[in-house]
Specification:
The protein has one domain (about 55-425). Helices cover about 80% and strands about 0% of the residues. By secondary structure, it is mainly alpha-helical. It has helices at about 1-15, 20-35, 40-55, 60-75, 75-90, 95-110, 115-130, 135-145, 155-165, 170-175, 175-200, 210-235, 240-255, 265-295, 300-310, 315-330, 335-350, 355-370, 380-385, 390-400, 400-415, 415-425. Helix 16 packs antiparallel against helix 17 (about 335-350).
């Protein structure tokens, strides 16, 4: 049953069927095999799909999407990039470091790797090319730094994981801060090594006046993640309410402070956000149906027993889980992978002593690396499109940056305090 349930889903994905439809069709086929085609409980199926999307916490998704789209379209990216350039542009390989720092800052607004790649990517790649950097560096740094987006809060994947795992959304969002900064630091170390090997000169150090001017222009957008995390930490608002606050703050900045938002542009942003939200909610609804039948058929228990039959060593089991997630991330859209695999893998991870919050970061980080990997890698496609590069050249440029990302993944697995330290400190 496990082979049919997972194998058919993967086959449909490989044939290009949308994630929601793939999960729905797989469930219907397996139910038909189990009960007979004349005994499919369509009423129960409809109810399970409805209940899957009927969650107050999931309201955070359209709000975070809208906030990120408003920031992206409201001229915020240029301000962030200018400030990052004033911070680290004078280092050796400076424009690459500017690229990474910009992505880390923008991560606190969009919560999406693809939004980072498409929004900041255009500015970053052009600036690096103008400064004389080779295309492989421009593409590799831009793609790798975009994966930080769903790790540093806000994070749509972590919200979905929290709903499915019945884990604290606030703890998950705060837990992503340290790993996100670790990813940025590791990428900057890798870039510094490449810059020294290739002989990139240091940039020109800005004057104090230039730095303060760039800070003044970027300070309000930079405050976005501070407001969100601070509000959640102090109990001023829940993670869902924080998403709504982010929308109001983004609308005020782009529409009234910077006056870069027109009615027509705002309507287009709303339409795009509604479209993206509908697609995500369909995936969640279908995944809830899929997950319900997984539990009904006792597949998570069977899968856990199967892994434990192979080995009882927690390290080996964790290694197997990470390997599976990395492979799945190459073929399956990240949100679909989270909704499908959470009910299967979470009990196994908890069984070997992994905290659900730590496992949430492990899962999302694995799947973000998958976004850089063919055949489905959406970030690789997005950066390749922005850079006007072929897919093979894009992947070759990204390969060196797997090293720091995999090191960070190993650290998140080995050191629980990297993810659990800040949430416990905030509670304290």
């Amino acid at each position: 049953m496990i082979a049919i349930f997972l194998g058919l889903l993967l086959l449909l994905f490989l044939f290009g069927m949308p994630a929601a439809l793939s999960m729905g069709v797989t469930t219907l086929v397996v139910v038909a095999i189990e009960r007979g085609i004349d005994s499919i409980p369509f009423t129960i199926i409809a109810q399970r799909m409805l209940y899957g999307a009927n969650s107050f916490t999931l309201l955070a998704i359209p709000f975070f999407l809208l906030a990120g789209n408003l920031m992206n379209a409201g001229g915020i990216t240029d301000r962030i990039f200018t400030f990052a350039k004033a911070m680290v542009g004078h280092w050796r390989g400076g424009m690459g470091h500017v690229n990474i720092v910009s992505s880390m800052i923008f991560s606190g607004m969009s919560g999406s790797a693809v939004a980072d790649a498409m929004g900041l990517g255009t500015v970053e790649i052009k600036a690096m090319r103008d400064a004389g950097y080779e295309d492989d560096i421009c593409i590799g740094v831009t793609a790798a730094s975009a994966t930080i987006g769903p790790i540093i809060p806000p994070s749509i994947p972590l919200v979905i994981f929290g709903v499915l795992a019945n884990a604290s959304i606030a703890d998950l969002l705060i837990a992503g801060i340290a790993p996100g900064f670790a990813m940025g630091f590791a990428l900057m170390v890798m870039l510094a090594i490449q810059a020294r090997i290739r002989g990139y000169p240091p940039g020109e150090r800005p004057s104090l006046e230039m730095f303060l001017r760039s800070l003044a222009k970027a300070i309000l957008p930079i405050l976005t993640p501070v407001i969100l995390v601070g509000g959640i930490w102090t109990g001023l608002f829940t993670p869902t309410e924080a998403a709504a606050v982010a929308v109001v703050y983004a609308a005020i900045l782009t529409g009234f402070v910077y006056r870069l938002m027109t009615v027509r542009k705002f309507w287009e942003i709303l339409r795009r956000t509604m479209y993206d939200t509908a697609a995500i909610m369909l995936i969640i609804a279908a995944a809830n149906l899929y997950g319900w039948f997984l539990v009904f058929a006792k597949i998570p228990q069977d899968f856990a027993a199967l892994m434990q039959a192979v080995t009882s060593d927690p390290v080996i089991i964790l290694l197997m889980i990470n390997t599976l997630l990395l492979i799945v991330g190459c073929f399956m859209e990240s949100l679909a992978a989270i909704t499908v695999l959470t009910p299967i893998l979470l009990p196994v991870a908890v069984g070997v002593g992994i905290h659900p919050v730590q496992f949430g970061i492990i899962m999302v980080l694995n799947l973000m690396i998958g976004l850089l990997t063919p055949p489905l890698g959406m970030v690789a496609f997005a950066v390749g499109k922005v850079a006007g590069s072929t897919m093979d050249k894009t992947i070759k440029a990204i390969i060196p940056y797997y090293i720091p990302l995999l090191i960070c993944l190993l650290a998140v697995n080995v050191f629980p305090w990297l993810t659990l330290g800040l949430p416990s400190l905030f509670k304290g």
